[in-house]
Every structure is written in C-alpha cells, then in structure tokens.
C-alpha cells in the first residue's frame, strides 16, 4: 500500500507528523493509499481512536483526503507541496512568460513616496494603541469602492489578497466545510483552501466568470463559501459580466447563509467595469490588492465587508500580527493621491498586448481566452508537450496543472514582457507546437 515505507508514532500528533514529513520529503506521493485505521492501529500497537485522530489531523491540514469505504489517501495536491512547484526551469536566452509578474516599466517609482512617508514618520512615529487602518487610506479606499458600486462597509487592511481571503475564510468556516472555487483558478488559493482543512468544490469558468449552473449546483450541494475573481481572473482573464453577476445573485438569494468573497486583485490595471457579488448574502467581503498596479513587494490589500465579518477579521488580526505597517499604508496613500499610476494607460497597455496575441492566435485557428488583465489561457491537448515544445522554440509558459482541479488542460502566457515585435513569432511558435501534437488546423 505504501511500498517500503512504514508509518511511525505512538500518539496522534506523532503519527500525523510522520505522514506529513514523508509527504513533504516526497517519500509518500499523491494518490498513495493509507492503511485502514484498525490495520495501522495493530501495526503501531495503539488504540484505533488514536489513528482516527491522526487521520483527522492530516485531513484538516490538507494532506490527505478520505472517501468513505475507499479509505484515505494522499491528496493529489497535498498542502505540503504547493502549486508554485509546478513550473518550468527557464534556460538562458528563453523569453519568460511564466511568472505572472506585471511589467516593471508600468510600475511607479516608490522612492518619493517612501521618502516622504519616512520623513512624516520621523516627525510623528506610529505607536501602540493607534487605529490599525490609516485614516487617509480608509477614506480613499472607501471613495474608490463607492465609485464602483460596492456596498458600504468598514475597511480593513492585510498583507496581500491571499492573507485577506485566508482571514475571511477562517472567520466563518471550520475544517471540513466546503468552498466553491474557480476551476481553472488561482493556484495559491487552490493550495490555501485544503491547507485550512476546507473541502474545495470546483466550478467551471468561462469568459464571463463562474458558470452559473455549476455555482447553483455547488450551492445546492451545501457549500459554505463561494470565492469569485471579479476581473482579470488568473489564469483565464475572465471578467464577471453584469448578466452573469445577476444570475449568480439570483442563485445566492436562496442561500443567504453562504459566505461570498470577491477577489478584485487587479483593480488599477483593468478597463472592464466591476460587477461584484458583495451584499448578495448576509456575510461577504471584497478584497483589493496593490500588488499588480504598484508592485508585488508592496504587501498590502484592503478589504471591506459586512460588519460581522470585518470585526471578526480585525479582532483576530489584532491578536496576531496586530496591524499592517502604517509606513506601507501611507505609501499607498501617497501613490494614490499623487496619481503615480495612470490606470487607464496601464490597462490599455496590457490590453493592446493581450488583444494582439489573441488575434494572432486566432489567425492560426487557435482558440484562447483573455478578456482582461495580463494573462492568456490556451487550451491544449498535452501540457507537458506544449511547454517543452515552446521551450525549444525560446518561450517559457506555465503548465495549466498549476491552476486546475478537474478542468481540461491548458497553458498560461503572461503578456507583460511582450513587445509588438514578439506577437507574431510567439503565435507562430504556439501554432507549430500544437500542429506537431495534431491538435487541429493551424495556419
């Protein structure tokens, strides 16, 4: 069942730690079946309840999954093996379209903002006991949310989008609860959900967002939360349309107890309007990050939501990290106030590259997706062959396995590094690789 490996330990925590360590080191692989409870209990000379507790710990940590009479086995993507490990080694001379980073030429300089904020700090340092959210940040954030039609609610600040989503989920859910997630979707989120001991229920995505019928089925099946990317969905570029948002709201009206999280991570670099689901249920949150528009290392995201959700997240945050540095918060205020980023120009720049590549691919008969943001998703018959073939032709792309649960294979291309001169050679390379795989008519 586990080959030569023998699980060790006397207590539940020791047994769980042994299995988790073996998974982390690669000794136990995804899909490996664990011994039945009573069999392992006899082998270790412990009470079956001890093994049951160990398996429960492993399930809650996202290491194993249980399927009734079929037993327990290592998850296909255990939490100890993050999806970031699914990638490519980029050789020298190969153009890297795999990282998902913004174009550094479109990021603002932080020097003036940091200098001014540091000088202000020298004059009046922030000390213990002060409000966790800078008043200027809260005011500007609320104004932006109001302009986009987001329901009124208090403002909170976290260290990035994933931090906010994790805290919101933890505020309402418990291990074993089911969460509807986009498939394909953000790889880090697909790691986070099982790591929290939550059960993910994948729902398909098209260019207008999560497919309404699949969300309805997930809701009827009893999911406790739904996470939706409003714009620039990673990896497909999907953007929630007004019509799709209305459909989803109608489904959610019959499930007011479901927690809804809107991820608006690309605010500031998209040119499609926001259509969110905030307020469709009793408990909700909308998260906005500064990473894409101002730089990934500016680790700050703001969130709003119903008062219960925000109060719970703030309270738990206060007991741990305490707050997000006011130096960072005031840096963002400076950038916003000074107009350091021309959002329309940034959106236009990404859109021109994205649309040009989509058009060039279409010229070869290759269907691809990329309604908004900086990524394009190309369905392919064989991810490994496509990635390898493009590497040989000088292009590194991301295999879709990093973003998928049950959805069909694909590859993600980030358009940030592309110049106009790159478009046709890249499309030609994709067409050549797919043609060699017999994927249909190309050129």
Keywords:
443 residues, alpha/beta, eight-stranded mixed β-sheet, three-stranded antiparallel β-sheet, 15 helices, 40% helix, 14% strand
How does this structure look, described?
The chain has 443 residues and is of the alpha/beta class. It has helices at 12-25, 37-44, 48-60, 111-123, 135-147, 161-172, 187-195, 212-220, 242-252, 291-294, 307-319, 326-338, 343-363, 383-392, 423-436, and strands spanning 64-66, 72-74, 95-96, 155-158, 178-183, 199-206, 209-210, 225-229, 259-263, 284-289, 301-305, 375-379, 395-396, 398-399, 410-414. It has 15 helices and 15 strands. An eight-stranded mixed sheet has the order 4-11-10-9-8-5-6-7, with helices on both faces. A three-stranded antiparallel sheet has the order 12-15-14, with helices on one face. It starts with 11 loop residues before the first helix and ends in a 7-residue tail after the last helix.
